[in-house]
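Record 1 of the preview.
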Amino acid sequence: MYLLATIIILSYLIGSIPTSIIVSKAVKGIDIREHGSGNAGGTNVMRVLGWKHGLLVIILDALKGVLAVVVVARLHYGSMPFSNITPFDDFTLVQIIAGIAAVIGHIWTVFAGFRGGKGIATALGMLLMIITVDMLVAIGVFILVVSISRYVSLGSILAAAAVPVTLVVRENIFHVNIPGYDTLLPFVIAVSTLVIFTHRKNLIRIFNGSENKVRFSKKKTEN
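->
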C-alpha cells in the first residue's frame, strides 16, 4: 500500500510541475495566468507568447504524463495491495493510476495555488503509452481541427471525444481485439469527460464568438 501511495504522490508531483508558468516567467517575466485566458496551459502560452513557446509547454506537459506511466509506475513490484478485478495486469493498472494522478496534478497543481492547466497534454502523454493507436487518431483529429478552425480548445475537445469513439469503432466495427476493452473504455470515457469538462468555458466562448484563435506566426498577442 505504501509503495502504491508513493507512486501516486510522485506522479501527482510530476504532474504538478507548472511548466507554463515556468516558461512564461523565463521568457517574459510574467505569470501566464494573468494574461490571455488566464489558464496555465500550453494553449494560453501559444496565444500570449507565440506558437513556439506554446508547443514547448504542450510537449513538456505531455512528458509529465509519459514520465508517470513509463518511469514512476515502474517503481511498483510485487502484488497489488488490493484485489485486481480488472482485465489488466498489475503493472498496466499501476500505469493507469499513475497517469490519472499526473493529470490531477496538472489541473490542481500544489506548486501554484492549485490553479493549473486543463490536463489535455498530460492526459495525451499518459494515454499515448497505453492506447497508442487511438491516441494517434486523436492527434490527427486535433491537428486537422486546429488547422481548419484555429481553435486549439476545439481541437482539444474533439480530440478527447475521438479517443473513446475510436476504441468503440476498432473493437466493434473492425473487430480488433483490444486487451481490457470493457474496463479500458469506461476509463477513457472518464478521462475524456474530465478534459472536456475543463474546457467548458472555452465552449461557451466559441459559441459566443469570443474565443481566441491561435496564430501560427511570429506575432504575439495578449488578448
